[in-house]
Amino acid sequence: MQSATWGAKVIEHSRVFKPEGTGPFPVALILHGCGGKTPFLEAYAQTAVEAGYAAVVVDSLEPRGLSSLDAKLTVCTGLRLRGHRRAADLFGVMAWLEGEAWADPRRIFLAGWSHGGWTIMDAFALGPRVGAVTGLADADPAKLRDRVRGALLVYPYAGYPALTTRQGWGGGGPKVFAVLAGRDQVVGWKAPKRALERLIADGLGVDTVFHADATHAFDDDRANDPRARYRPDLFAQTRDYFSQALRQGLEG
Where would I find the Dienelactone hydrolase domain in this sequence (predicted)? Predict the structure, then answer.
């Protein structure tokens, strides 16, 4: 399949937010966790709009015919749609943006929460294997590196079988902004920290915020995991951090 064809299918189920005006706007792609889209991500999309970006809250479940229950039973357990497979959505939507007059496809910012962070990291780590792994014959890892101006990773999954710690991103990538939670009961903080340390060792710029007393999904007021504790103060701080990262992306 061609990337733009898959991107168009993903967009059918995703939501696009735009600033006033005709653009072209830089674009923030927002990737949900393993359970699917939740309303709090639209607040982050609004943060992107306020920073001068268009934003796409990407739905990775419905284009594949996956329900919320499917996600909980198979995606969240790692049985299907692992990060390297889901990376197809990034390449697809980026290709689709090339045909949209309101979008500047050369100025992209990626933001992922939990499984979405894993997806972003694997997209870079795949390197020249990306076409074979994602099933997109024209997926171009060089274009990904050239066009992505920054990446926000919020409590990203980085344990096995995620690729970054073991192999890095193979020749660079954008500046990374990361938010880790010290009481994260889902992905922990040690595995993401090791992945970020690998990127630093490979010469990438990495900025990390560590909230020692935060749980996984601390910014989601509708988190379905009973162990999660919503922290509106940290939600506000993370939105501010995202805004700062987006503005740095425009400067780069």
Answer: 15-244
Whether the Cβ atoms of residue 48 and residue 30 lie closer than 8 Å to each other = yes
CATH number at residue 86: 3.40.50.1820
Q: Is the dihedral of CA 173, 179, 185, 186 positive or negative?
A: negative
Along the 252 residues of the chain, how does pLDDT read in single tens digits?
999 999 999 999 999 999 999 999 999 999 999 999 999 999 999 999 999 999 999 999 999 999 999 999 999 999 999 999 999 999 999 999 999 999 999 999 999 999 999 999 999 999 999 999 999 999 999 999 999 999 999 999 999 999 999 999 987 899 999 999 999 999 999 999 999 999 999 999 999 999 999 999 999 999 988 899 999 999 999 999 999 999 999 986
CA–CA distances in Å: residue 52 to residues 90, 97, 109: 21, 17, 12
Dihedral in degrees, nearest 10, Cα atoms 106, 252, 201, 133? -10
Looking up tokens 């967009």 gives: 11
Distance CA 165, CA 172 (A): 14
From the number of C-beta atoms within 10 Å of its C-beta (0-12, 13-18, 19+), residue 148 rates as: buried
Residue for token pair 């993370």: 238
CA distance 17 to 49: 7
In order of 91, 215, 229, the CA distances from 186 in angstroms are 27, 8, 13
